[in-house]
Every structure is written in structure tokens, then in C-alpha cells.
Design brief:
Layout (H helix, E strand, L loop, with lengths): L19 H13 L4 H10 L3 H11 L2 H9 L3 H6 L12 H12 L3 H11 L9 H11 L1 H8 L5 H15 L2 H18 L5 H14 L8 H5 L3 H7 L6 H12 L18
Helix pairs in contact: 1-2, 2-7, 2-11, 3-8, 6-9, 10-11, 10-12, 12-15
Length: about 260
């Protein structure tokens, strides 16, 4: 059976709507460990609504979506095949992506494995809608590379603001603002954290949908040209926040949701 043979929506698919108590429960766990990616997936699932489904279905039924379904590219396997991009120049998206993944000790397959901790593949609906949601998951680290947001707590929160405008899941927006509030609470910083989230939303709203791109072609583009084509602006407020945090003795790479200890000068 090919992807095109799958139903658009499987009979067992359910739209959860907004489940606030479940969201708060899993956000509490995320505060304890910001690397616990499983909690992010739990929150997203607890808030998946009609708007994200409508966008998924519009793309699936589009000419581009139909082409991608026919091609059935395994995006995580493609991204993790670093040898495939060996002929790409040093300023291509591929080169920046590989450098980012190696520096952070990440893999596309690792993100898939994290998502499967809370939802094993056999438990998910077999439909084209799931293919689309998997696509938004599989392109997450490309979002980091193309936007310039780091993996510090504020970078992740700001990127979630960007991602909300791309994918329209209210759980993502909840995490973004709740994370900014928690960072401010534990660090006491004067940096405009909420403005950084707002900026992420503005940039995400203006940009083309990254998950809707031909990822193989995107990887071979010059990163500056790709950002211009996709209309991805610079996260200036986020960078200003990092500068302020640094002046306060708070190192961005050590900033977590649960604690933020000023570093000795």
C-alpha cells in the first residue's frame, strides 16, 4: 500500500481539542527537564485542533502535497545520510544543518524515537494526515538552522512561537509563553523574553511554510538564498535577549526552564 492509498483521515483518528489539565501536567515535567522531548509531544497531542487539521488537509490535497506523497521520501533517513550532502558547498543549508546536528549531538532519527516513546507507530492512525504531522516533526531541526534560534531554553521557546504560526497548534504556543514566564521567574532577567516570543510569531507568520518545501532541494540551496526565498527574517530581539542575559552573568547554554544560575565573572 502506498501513501496515496491511505485514507485522508482514518476512522480511529480523534481530535482532542484543548485539554488544559493534561497540558499543565506535562508542562510541569518539561520544567523539570527541558530535554524531555516526550513532554512536548504530549502537550502537542493534547491541544491538536481543527485549524492544524485543516492546514494538513489543504496541503495533502495540493499538487505539491500529492507529489510528495507519491515520492514517499523518508525525511529522517535522508537528513541523517550525511554522505549524501558531501558535495554541497560550505554555505549550503546541508552544511549548516550537518554542523548543527553534530555540534548538538542530534539526529533526525533520534527525534522520531522520542516521539515514539509516547506514541508507538502501531498506535497511530494510518492515514495521510499522520504523514503530514510526521513531516512537521521531521523538519524541526531544520527550523533551528534556517531561523538561527539556538537550543537554549529561550531559543527553543522563541522557535515554538515561530512554529505556532507555521503549524497552528495551540499547545506549541502555550509552551512558548509558559517557558518564557518560567525562565523569567527563575532567572530574574530584565531581558524582554515575551517580546522574543512575539518576534518568533511575527517571523513565522511572514515566512513560507518550511514543512511544505522540497527538503532535498532545500538542503542544496545557499542558506542565505534559502532564507530570502522563504522570507525568514533575523531574530533580533532573541539575540538582544542573549546579550542582556550575558551581561547579567547568565549563560544562554546553561539556561534551563527549571533553574538559571548566574555565572561568576
Amino acid at each position: 500500500m502506498t501513501l496515496l492509498d491511505l485514507p485522508l483521515v482514518a476512522p480511529d483518528r480523534r481530535t482532542s481539542g484543548f485539554r488544559p489539565f493534561k497540558v499543565l501536567h506535562h508542562f510541569g515535567k518539561l520544567v523539570e527537564d527541558k530535554e524531555d522531548t516526550e513532554q512536548v509531544f504530549q502537550i502537542i497531542e493534547a491541544t491538536k485542533g481543527k485549524r492544524s487539521l485543516a492546514q494538513a488537509h489543504d496541503f495533502i490535497c495540493s499538487e505539491t502535497g500529492q507529489r510528495f506523497l507519491r515520492e514517499a521520501v523518508d525525511i529522517p533517513a535522508m537528513l541523517d545520510d550525511h554522505a549524501r550532502w558531501a558535495d554541497c558547498g560550505p554555505n549550503t543549508v546541508a552544511a549548516h544543518y550537518i554542523a548543527f546536528m553534530k555540534r548538538e549531538g542530534l539526529s533526525a532519527a533520534g527525534l522520531v524515537a522520542e516521539s515514539h516513546k509516547w506514541a508507538p507507530p502501531e498506535s497511530l492512525p494510518r492515514d495521510r494526515t499522520q504523514w503530514y504531522f510526521d513531516r512537521t516533526r521531521d523538519t524541526h531541526d531544520l527550523f533551528h538552522v534556517l531561523t538561527g534560534y539556538g537550543r537554549d531554553a529561550l531559543g527553543e521557546a522563541s522557535l515554538l512561537g515561530f512554529s505556532y504560526q507555521q503549524n497552528h497548534n495551540t499547545g506549541i504556543l502555550f509552551i512558548a509563553y509558559a517557558a518564557a514566564r518560567q525562565i523569567k521567574k527563575v532567572s530574574g532577567t530584565k531581558a524582554p523574553l515575551f517580546a522574543a516570543i512575539k518576534e518568533g510569531r511575527r517571523l513565522g507568520r511572514a515566512a513560507a511554510k518550511i514543512a511544505h518545501q522540497d527538503i532535498a532541494a532545500l538542503m542544496r540551496e545557499d542558506i542565505g538564498e534559502a532564507r530570502a526565498r522563504l522570507n525568514i527574517g533575523k531574530p533580533e530581539v532573541y539575540r538582544q535577549c542573549l546579550t542582556i542575559l550575558g551581561s547579567e552573568g547568565i549563560l544562554s547554554e546553561q539556561l534551563t526552564l527549571g533553574s538559571a544560575q548566574p555565572q561568576a565573572a
